[in-house]
Amino acid sequence: MSVLVETRGLRKYFPIHRGIFQRLAGQVRAVDGVDLTIDEAHCLALVGESGSGKTTLGRCILRLLEASAGEIRFAGEDLLGLTASELRRRRRHFQMIFQDPYSSLNPRMKVGRILSEPLEVHQTVPVRERRDRVGELLRLVGLPPDSAQRYPHEFSGGQRQRIGIARALAPEPRFLVADEPVSALDVSVRAQIINLLLNLRETLRLGMLFIAHDLTVVEQVADRVAVLYLGQIVEQASTVQLFDTPLHPYSISLLSAVPVPDPERPHHRILLSGEPPSPAEPPSGCRFHPRCPIAIDRCREEKPLLRELQTGHFVACHYPGELAVPPDLPRSGGTF
């Protein structure tokens, strides 16, 4: 399987300015040295708490935000080395599905215009064929073709997200970044959108970066999972490996937080102390050590490297697997 997207040492720092003269007082290290690989037609899920840098990382990969340092390669080509005009020509190959279906669609445009605009920008379809292409896109996401004559406010949240997906698919991309595409939707609608994304990925052979904090969704969607904490990858593995044998204490704590729908079933949560540290002043050593239940002096002083402990299973921890895994942790292929 060939590599579609690859990042090496990717960083994104936001400057902090203070005072009347707005002097540089520090930097927020939102993404701090991330290595990722996504194969063609495969899905990598990016998980972590709010503020861990997931959305920033996704936007940097698409160059919606400019990275501070590092490398981004798409199909072997260095994206950071492209000029603005060269990048514009490549953009049709990588698109984004945004989190909020209410703010990501222009309320003054009819759906037909929303979907035909990327066709016009990227010039992928002749003018006389664009109406047919819009109808095809609507059918692809499960909406009737006459939806093209309506405005976004006339649709429900789930329908709006379908329109957002259709817009992302309009220029026939090879890679999608889906930024928590179901988190703003009702529970009853989430399964429909997830199934739609799964079908589209299989039918169109799309590569995908799926950003989420809901591990019940990740288990259904992803081939591999990367766990992000304070801008750095702490564990990366296949979905089966991560759910069956999590090794990093943070990954174990995330899995233990998955709610259990059965009130009769015992549930052992690993409660982390305190709040995540500020990315403007990250801790020394392991960034997770202030909240880690098994941290010792070495964790406070020495930064752990991301290393491969099993085939395809990478962990950044001095003592991987030493935190006792709760017996009722959700497993791959099981029920949550």
What report would you give on this structure?
The chain is of the alpha/beta class and 336 residues long. The protein contains ten helices and twelve strands. It has an eight-stranded mixed sheet, with helices on both faces. A four-stranded antiparallel sheet has the order 2-1-4-5. Strand 7, helix 6 and strand 8 form a beta-alpha-beta unit. The chain starts with a strand and ends in a 21-residue tail after the last strand.
Average pLDDT, rounded to a whole number, is 92
Number of E-state strands:
12
Q: Percent of residues in beta strands?
A: 15-25%
The name CATH uses for the topology is Rossmann fold
The helix/strand class is alpha/beta
Uncertain spans, ≥5 residues at pLDDT below 50?
none
CATH class: Alpha Beta
User: How many structural domains?
Assistant: 1
Rg calculated over all Cα atoms: 21 Å
Task: Tell me the distance between the termini.
Answer: 31 Å
CATH homologous superfamily grouping: P-loop containing nucleotide triphosphate hydrolases
User: How do the helices and strands follow one another from N- to C-terminus?
Assistant: EEEHEEHEHHHEHEHEEHHHEE
The number of helical runs is: 10
User: Strands of the largest sheet, in order across it?
Assistant: 6-7-8-3-9-10-12-11
Based on CA inertia axes, which overall geometry fits? Answer: globular
Please estimate the helix content: 25-40%
Q: Major sheet, described briefly?
A: 8 strands, mixed
CATH architecture descriptor name: 3-Layer(aba) Sandwich
